[in-house]
Amino acid sequence: MSSNTLADVLKSISRFLPETLLSSLSWQRVFDLAGQLPALLCPYSFGFEMPLHQPLQNVDFAFCITQPGCDILTGIYPLESRSELTENPRIWPGIKNFCKVWGNPGSGPFRRVENLWLEFRPENRNFVNTPVPFIKMKDPAGQETWLPDSLEMLYGKRIPERVKHCLSCFLKNLSPKLRPFQAGIYEQDGRCHIRLCLEGLMLKELPGFLKRTGLELPHLDDDVLSTMERICVHIDIGETMGQTIGIELRQDPGKELDARTQPEWDRVLDLLEQKGLCRPGNNAFLKEFRGYSYEMIHPDLAPFITFRFLYYLKVVYTPGEPAKVKAYFGFVNRTVVPAMENKTYHFIFHKQLSQEIIHGAIRKGITFLSLNQLPHGEFNTYISGDMEMRTAEYDSSPFVTAFVLYCTRHISDELFYLPRQRAGIFLHREGLPGYLWKYWTYASGRTIVPDTDDTCCISFIMQELFHLDEVKRNIPVILSNRDKNELFNTWIKEPHASNDTDIVVNANILLYLGNRKETKAAIAFIKECIVKGEEKKHYQYYLNNLACYYMVSRAAIHGIHDFKELFPVMKERILESRNPEGTWGDALSTALALCSLHNMEVPTGEADEAFLRLMNRQQANGAWGRSAFYAGPEPPGPHSVWFGSEELTTAFCLEVLTKRIGSTR
């Protein structure tokens, strides 16, 4: 079973929200709302904001959308069914329009917006399906120009000029140390309001800031505020500066994760109760709620759990009214196996490993991949100036993600559903018009022409896993990109531009194109090279014959049956290249060799020792170590940069494990 809607996730937390906290009516409204939203739309964070001075019957519900989610919301990427909820004409058209712009790599929001929060207020039955949108900024530079335009897109109609003017004046007069980190837009009593959330103030600077801004200075509860290490200020802006002020209290980020390290929260909650700002029952609930709790989201989704924590308290001051306090308690989805979290497997070399142990290693590997997947869906690639990759830095590319998806394609949806879907959205987003792909991502800021290796590896995945048949539109371009010998060029350039051919790249092209008249020359040439033992002369980007044999053998099992004639010679060379301990050196090379042998249907007993040693190399976090898989630059120059990652090696090792025990679907 897969968690297809947010309601499936909320089922697991319902026991944390007793009816004394959230009325059955309010909970049902939230649950009905969540049932109309795909889980993939908000895969990471959601939570509730509640007033502390009254019984916790009415609670606001909010969740976070990252860039992959905007493709689901706008229907650009059809992984999930469309929701009738998002057809609501009140506010959703503006949110969808913003998401379309946000998804454009050349747009200002793409560069400057980190995520989008949607807040629902279920106590208002008329607006339960009408979210208040907030954007979180990762680059506030020039916000007086781009922020009003982004908020207007979210609003879905023109912001009144007086509101725009007031916002612009406020932003221009901010001191450099004050940083707007979040902004939202909403309607109240038929009027447009903008909420700005600011950070960078010390508590002692707050009175001076409010006075300079022209806001009425509230009576601050210094004994409450002074216990907190960080404050954020919420300012509402309408046609004039609003008088309602919210002061958000936070701990140092490292302390927010563990209730045992933040006794300050206890003192604050007790002070609030003494002042009549927090009911005793709410105080007790929050003290019990804080900190991480390892809870299963669904019994069929073994690695997927949710964490719960108190994120902030917010003191709200409105002229002529007593101060009010709200608390935000949140949930974060992660992929962890609690029983294995502090457990390291050490394997004794014996002839048989139990299915349970291999399944456990697979779960640990999937846990590592899921936890280390980047929010936009990519799996890490690293670039290094030395072949051993002792030092390396992040290099954003879709290529590694395509291999991670291929290697894990037989791992069940229950174990890898959300990471797989997020990765698919990432790959789809990186496509050029005509379904061509280039090595570096839009976000990397680096320019490069599209190439057949990226294009064909990704196109195969988009068809195999996500059934996106539209990618076939790129086939005429690929078929026309051949040299005089009818081998496929690596780079998709103008016909007379400099180019190169690589037999491993050609094997990946054949994986996608299959057996057709236009591929016969490439098939014949690859066979000739391997039979003669000259393969190493004809690849430039990959590092050894093991990578070549892996690509050829996987093309063979996916339809290039002529390559099966090469199995005896490839098997012999692979087995002869083992070192004295029975492996092929590092984990990556060993995994490539074992996968190739399995593709060639070599009995597992011929490489048992290598398999056992590979299992023993799995690290405590579930990963296998980083090694270089391919290199650059393009020929004729010598290799000067090498590429690989723990995620890539781990994916190949997981392919070995799943091949050993059969599909886990």
Secondary structure topology:
Elements: H1 6-10, H2 24-34, E1 45-51, E2 60-65, H3 67-74, H4 92-102, H5 108-112, E3 113-120, E4 132-137, H6 143-155, H7 161-172, E5 179-188, E6 191-199, H8 206-213, H9 222-225, E7 230-237, E8 241-250, H10 263-274, H11 280-289, E9 295-296, E10 304-317, E11 324-335, H12 355-372, E12 382-384, E13 393-394, H13 399-407, H14 413-430, H15 452-464, H16 475-479, H17 503-513, H18 520-531, H19 545-557, H20 567-576, H21 587-599, H22 608-616, E14 630-632, E15 641-644, H23 646-661
Antiparallel strand pairs: 1-2, 1-11, 2-3, 3-4, 4-5, 5-6, 6-7, 7-8, 8-10, 9-10, 10-11, 12-13, 12-15, 14-15
Helix pairs in contact: 3-4, 3-14, 4-6, 6-7, 10-11, 12-23, 13-15, 13-23, 15-17, 17-18, 17-19, 19-21, 21-23
What does it look like?
The protein is α+β, with helices and mostly antiparallel strands. The chain is 37% helix and 16% strand. The protein is built from 23 helices and 15 strands. The strands form 2 sheets. Strands 1-2-3-4-5-6-7-8-10-11 form a 10-stranded antiparallel barrel, surrounded by 4 helices. The chain has a 4-stranded antiparallel β-sheet with strand order 13-12-15-14. It is elongated. The protein starts with 5 loop residues before the first helix and ends with a helix. Residues 253-261, 292-304 and 335-352 have low confidence and may be disordered.
